[in-house]
Design a protein that fits this description.
Blueprint: H1 22-31, E1 36-40, E2 43-46, H2 47-63, E3 71-75, H3 80-91, E4 95-98, H4 105-114, E5 117-123, H5 127-135, E6 142-146, E7 160-161, H6 162-167, E8 184-189, E9 199-203, H7 204-218, E10 225-227, H8 235-238, H9 240-246, E11 250-252, H10 259-269, E12 273-276, H11 278-285, E13 299-303, H12 310-318, E14 321-329, E15 334-338, H13 350-357, E16 362-363, E17 367-373, E18 389-395, E19 401-402, H14 406-412, E20 418-426, E21 432-437, E22 442-444, E23 447-449, H15 451-459, E24 464-474, E25 478-487, H16 496-506, E26 515-518, H17 532-540
Parallel strand pairs: 1-11, 3-4, 3-5, 5-6, 6-7, 10-11, 10-12, 12-13, 13-14, 25-26
Antiparallel strand pairs: 1-2, 8-9, 9-19, 14-15, 15-16, 17-18, 18-20, 20-21, 22-23, 24-25
The chain binds adenosine-5'-diphosphate.
């Protein structure tokens, strides 16, 4: 049979261009040159200025020898420089490696070596670690200091400052679209909670599509005012540097998401949207009264990166904030699933509503497919809300793969799906609910115990500020659940018996923690994830 739709209808330059999020900046600078693009302390710049500066920076980097396929690393807080790097580096076909600012020098050295960084942007606050990290490098990158007036202490350690470098760029520099949208745009290392960090590589196409998907998921309107509480080093700030730019919004930058700073910024700049891990939401909920502020305008917060306890969602909503729950991984450019809000949930009481919203939901627009399945047979589990399987994803916002790590890449993509390593159930309404990471689930006497479920019950107790549940070895049961709890300061005395009583009333007996350990602070990664391996170590010791 003649395929008429394949005849004389080819892909040509006129009807096919490589997708890239850099085009968002070009368009926004044309559409809204005078609108405020970025606010940081006393500095404010328009879209025309940010575009011009990004082009100049790209030109300056080219003069330093940065070419297509080179890596540019950045150890920076959420400053305007970090935002500009998200555009300038890919304009050259180079790859941005935004690094977690809380990592130790040894890990930074590992990333600089592994990613073969040519240029390394740092901030005075991190100068000591940056210097130590570079000292250990096989090839020394050129160091550029972002001499931020709001940084405290530290030294300038580079061969030039960011503004000095920028000044060397040409004003008439033009950028070229990548010839291939599969070209790498970013390199993001996983936190290494499961071993050596793996270098996750993103391409222009995925970054473009995930940005658009995030605009729709969060409901970002034209001109949104977005507060940078989420680190831009985490999955490139879930692609929001590009997404907010696409809607010609305003980026409000802050160095640290301290509650007072966050509340002030929301009020002062009429912030409409921000993203934060549940741990940051808890900080806002538990902030001292004098730091909290009520807002007359609507504020939407996307949370994810870890499971938000229903109690946290309920408390945020009670403060008048709209909560959107997203799920994702570094490997999926950040958010890839969303708990789409159903109209009839408005009628539920806040606790029931929050419980529905705490589920991870369904795919976001850019993700093509998902399933919860048995990881051995790859057979989907029944959608009964009970059978546990691994979550598998497939789509255009799944990474290119792990840099120079074919073995792990092949493993992650086996059977035509991306293996998330997260275990969950599939509900009859098609929503997925994550129960645990595969390495965290507790198997006690052959029964699975979801640590997230036990934590959620602990969070419902008014005396609990934070909780983490891990497996403790047990000669009889194999493993038993054990809880680490940070009590709320204003609660009075919280006892082990009281917590156990609360758990007994709300959980099956075998899920009740067999030991409760009180802790002033739970160990967390810089992105707010509980470091359960640190807690488990206590039992090994
Ligand atoms: P790392 O794997 O390096 O710790 P990631 O940011 O890639 O860092 O972590 C992704 C993991 O975080 C997911 O596999 C999942 O376990 C957890 N996660 C992310 N978002 C959610 C969410 N909304 N609910 C539950 N867990 C989540």
């Amino acid at each position: 049979m003649d395929e008429i739709f394949e005849q004389g209808l080819s892909r040509v330059d006129a009807n096919y261009t490589a997708l890239t999020p850099i085009s968002f900046l070009e368009r926004t600078a044309l559409a809204h040159p005078c609108r405020v693009a970025v606010i940081y302390g006393d500095t404010s710049r328009t879209w025309a200025e940010v575009y011009r500066r990004s082009l100049k920076l790209a030109s300056a980097l080219r003069k330093l020898g940065v070419c297509q396929g080179d890596t540019v690393a950045a150890l920076l807080p959420n400053t305007p420089a970090m935002l500009e790097l998200h555009f300038a580096v890919p304009m050259l076909g180079a790859v941005l490696n935004a690094q977690n600012t809380r990592l130790d020098a040894r890990t930074i050295t590992f990333m600089l070596n592994h990613g073969r960084a040519k240029v390394f942007f740092t901030d005075r606050e991190f100068s000591e670690r940056a210097q130590e990290a570079v000292a250990g490098c096989d090839h020394k990158p050129i160091i550029v200091d972002v001499d931020d007036p709001y940084a405290e202490g530290g030294e300038l350690i580079g061969s030039m400052t960011y503004e000095e470098l920028l000044a060397t760029g040409d004003d008439d520099f033009t950028w070229e679209r990548p010839s291939n949208e599969w070209q790498a745009i970013a390199l993001n290392y996983t936190s290494g909670t499961t071993g050596n960090p793996k270098g996750v590589v993103y391409h222009h196409r995925g970054a473009h599509l995930n940005s658009l998907s995030n605009i729709i998921g969060l409901g970002l309107p034209a001109g949104a005012v977005y507060l940078w509480t989420l680190p831009m080093f985490h999955c490139n700030g879930w692609c929001y540097p590009w997404a907010v730019t696409a809607v010609a919004g305003t980026h409000v930058c802050i160095r640290q998401p301290q509650p007072a700073v966050v509340f002030d910024a929301i009020a002062k700049h009429e912030v409409t949207h921000f993203c934060a891990a549940p741990v940051v939401l808890n900080m806002l909920i538990n902030a001292p009264k004098e730091q909290k502020q009520a807002f007359e305008h609507t504020v939407t917060v996307a949370t994810g990166g870890a499971a938000p306890p229903a109690a946290t969602i309920a408390a945020m909503e009670a403060m008048g904030l709209n909560v959107v729950h997203l799920y994702g991984l570094t490997e999926t450019y950040g958010p890839s699933m969303i708990c789409e809000f159903q109209d009839d949930w408005h009628e539920l009481d806040i606790k029931q509503k929050a419980t529905k919203m705490a589920r991870q939901g369904i795919t976001m627009l850019a993700m093509s497919d998902m399933m919860v399945a048995d990881p051995i047979s790859m057979e989907p589990v029944p959608q009964d809300g009970e059978s546990i399987g691994e979550l598998f994803l497939r789509g255009n916002n799944v990474m290119k793969g792990y840099l120079c790590n074919e073995k792990e890449t092949t493993k992650a993509f086996a059977d035509g799906w991306f293996h998330t390593g997260d275990l969950g159930v599939w509900h009859p309404d098609g929503y997925v609910e994550i129960k645990d990471r595969s390495k965290d689930i507790i198997i006690s006497g052959g029964e699975n115990i979801s640590t997230l479920e036990v934590e959620s019950v602990l969070y419902d107790h008014p005396g609990v500020l934070e909780a983490a549940v891990v497996a403790a070895p047990d000669t009889h049961w194999g493993e038993v659940p054990c809880a680490f709890v940070t009590p709320r300061h204003d609660y009075g005395e919280l006892t082990e018996e009281e917590i156990v009583r609360h758990c007994r009333a709300n959980l099956a007996g075998f899920k009740v923690p067999k030991r409760i350990v009180f802790m002033e602070e739970l160990p967390k990664t810089s992105t707010g994830k509980l470091q359960k391996h640190v807690l488990r170590q206590q039992f090994v010791a």
